[in-house]
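We give its fold:
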Amino acid sequence: MSDAARAPAQASAGVPSPCISVCRIEASSGLCEGCLRTLDEIAQWGAMTDEERRAVWQAIDERRATRDAGPGRR
């Protein structure tokens, strides 16, 4: 296999999945309770570039900060 043929697989392996095997979608938010991704983000993960995956991680960080700062949280 040529280097060019291997490049996409190697590139996509660079950013780890946020999945923690707690796969339940919250009806109120539409987010997975475990990884805080949307169904679309979960479904598209395998086809995303590293840049797109990093953007999802950024969105997860923002969602977590918003969730943790919500009412009743310290």
